[in-house]
C-alpha cells in the first residue's frame, strides 16, 4: 500500500533495540489476556523485545523468573480465556520506596524502559509515580553500586502507557473499560434466567451487582433488562424513596406483570450516606407489600468466564495502540492511557484521567451527586436519563399535550435489539405526549392496514426478547406507496420511525483447541458486507477473513495456506479461516475448504461450518439492548422536535418537505449523527447494499498483524494526545450522546 500525504503508516515506527514489559495489576477483568496478546505480538512485530511481568507489581519487585521474555507462541490460545494468565496481585511492597527501587533495578538489568500497565486507577497511578521517580531511583542504584553510570544514562527515561482493565467501568476518559461488557453479559444471563422463575411464582427479585464506588454495571443492566428500580452510589434516591419504590412495584403488578426486578449496586447509598443493601430492600418489599421476595448476590461470577467479542476487540485494539504510543513517545511525553471514544481509539494523559476519576468520589463524599454523574461522563449521564425516562411513567396530567401520531415499524431481516429499540421509542413517544402506533410485518403490514395503537404497558418485557415482536419483512415500499399513503391518512400518521437494515466463531475455535493441527473454515452472513467476518475474525484470532470489499484471487488463497502451514510446522497451532457469504462467487466456502484440505495434507486437517441464521437468533446482548434503547430514544426526541418545527397551527397540519425531514441515525466516529437520506445516494453502493466507505476496514490489518502477516496499517487516526474535557450539556442536549 503506497503512502499518501494524508495517511501515516506504522512501518515508519521501529521497535528495534527497545524492550517492552507488560503486566496486569489489581482486580482481574475478562479481556486482559487479549490485551496482553496484542501487546506481545505487536511489540515483536515491530522488532522490540517483549517481557511478561508475572503477578503484577509484586513480580516486578521480586524479579527473577517473574520477568520473562515473551514469544509469539507464548500468547497462542489465550484470546478466549478469562482472567489474566500472567497473574495479578495487590502489592504492598511497590507502595514503598524500597520496593520501587528493587523494581527499577530489575527492569534496568533487562534493559526495559517501556512499560504497559493493564489495571485500574490505583495501578495506573502507581505506574505514573514510578515514572516520576525513575531518574532518582537510577541515581540511588548508581550510588549503591548496583548499576553503572553508563546504564543510568542509557536507560534514563521510563515510558508508560496504560490500559484500563476494570469490570466497573469506573475510569473517566473512556467510554468502556476492558472487562465491562463481559461482566454485563454475566449479569444479563443471570437476570434472564431469574425472570423466568420469578414470573412462574410471581416473585420479586433483588439482584446485587458489583460496583462499590461506581454504579455503571447496575445502571446499564437495569436499562438492558427493563428493571423496575435501580440503586447506585452516584445518584442516591430522594428521601421517601421507599414509598415511591413500593408504589412503582405495586403499579407494575396491577398492570398484569407477574414479577419485579430490582438491581442494587454493592455501593448503593441514600442521600445521607447510609448504605442501602440488597437485604434492606428485600425486607422493605416484604414488610410493605407482602410480595414473595428473593435476593441474589452475583459476586465474583461477574469477573469470570469467557470474554465477550466486544472485550476481545476492544482489548486487541488497545494493545496495538499501546505499543504504537510507546514507539512514538519521547522523554517529554506524559504517561498516557489508551481508551475508546465512540468507535475510535484515543490517547489521554494518564493523570488527567486519574484526577477526574478521583473527583467523582470526592463529589460523592461531599454529596454533590449531580456533579458526580456529570464527572462520570456523557455516556453514564445519558444512561441514567434514559433509564429514568423509560422506567418511570409520568401521570397523564403531567405529560405534554401533543396532537401527533407516530408509527413504529421494523423492516428487513430480524436483528437482536430491535425489540429494545421499539420499547424505547414507544415509551419516549408517550412521554413526549404522542399517540404511538405499531405496524406489524414491516411495509407489507403497513399497506395492508396492520396498524394499531400501542400503549406503555404493551412493550413491558420486550428488552430481552430476540427477533422482532412486531414482525418484519423485506418488502420494499415503492410498489405500494399509494396504499401506504392511504393508511397514513386513515390513521393520521405524522411521523415514521423505521428500525431495520438496508431494506459465533468463538465456540468453534475452542473446539479446535482440543485438537492439534486443525483448521476450521467458517462461513458468516452479511450479504456483501464483510463486517461480521472481519470483526469476528479479530475477536476470535482468525488467520484469514475473506470479504467482498477486499478482492482476492487464487494467489492470495495459496499464500494464506502456505502461511498457515508454516505456522503449524513450527508450533502446536489451531487455525480459523472466515469467509463472508458473498465474498466471491467462484471461491466458495466449499472451494476454500477443499483447497485448504488438499494443500494442508500431512500438516493439518480441516473442518467446515456454515453458521447461517443462528447468527440472527437468540437473546440480544447487553450492548444491543443498551444501544437499541438509547438510539431509539434519541430518534424519538428528534422526531418530536421536527414535528413541532414543521407544524402549522393555522392549518392544523404537519409540512415536512425539506431534506432533513427524513434522516438516518447512526454512529460516525465519535458521535451519533442524523444524516438526510437523500445524501446517502452518493455514499451507497446500492447494487451490493453497502456503504462505499467502511470505517471498520481499518481494523482488518490488525487481524493480519496478530496472525503474523506482514502488512500495512494506517495509523492516521492514532498518535494524537488529547485532553480530558468535562462536558456539561444543556438540558436540550440531554440525549445528545451515548
UniProtKB/TrEMBL annotation:
Pfam families, per database record: PFK (PF00365)
Which family is this sequence assigned to? Belongs to the phosphofructokinase type A (PFKA) family. ATP-dependent PFK group I subfamily. Eukaryotic two domain clade "E" sub-subfamily.
Q: Which GO terms fall under biological process for this protein?
A: canonical glycolysis; fructose 1,6-bisphosphate metabolic process; fructose 6-phosphate metabolic process
Q: Which UniProt keywords apply?
A: Allosteric enzyme, ATP-binding, Cytoplasm, Glycolysis, Kinase, Magnesium, Metal-binding, Nucleotide-binding, Transferase
Q: Which reaction does it catalyse?
A: beta-D-fructose 6-phosphate + ATP = beta-D-fructose 1,6-bisphosphate + ADP + H(+)
What are the leading ranks of the lineage? Answer: Eukaryota, Metazoa, Chordata, Craniata, Vertebrata
State its Enzyme Commission number(s).
Answer: 2.7.1.11
Domain Phosphofructokinase positions = 20-325, 503-639
One GO CC annotation: membrane
Name the cofactor(s) required for activity, per the record: Mg(2+)
**UniProt protein name:** 6-phosphofructokinase
Recorded metabolic or biological pathway in which this protein acts: Carbohydrate degradation; glycolysis; D-glyceraldehyde 3-phosphate and glycerone phosphate from D-glucose: step 3/4
A GO MF label: metal ion binding
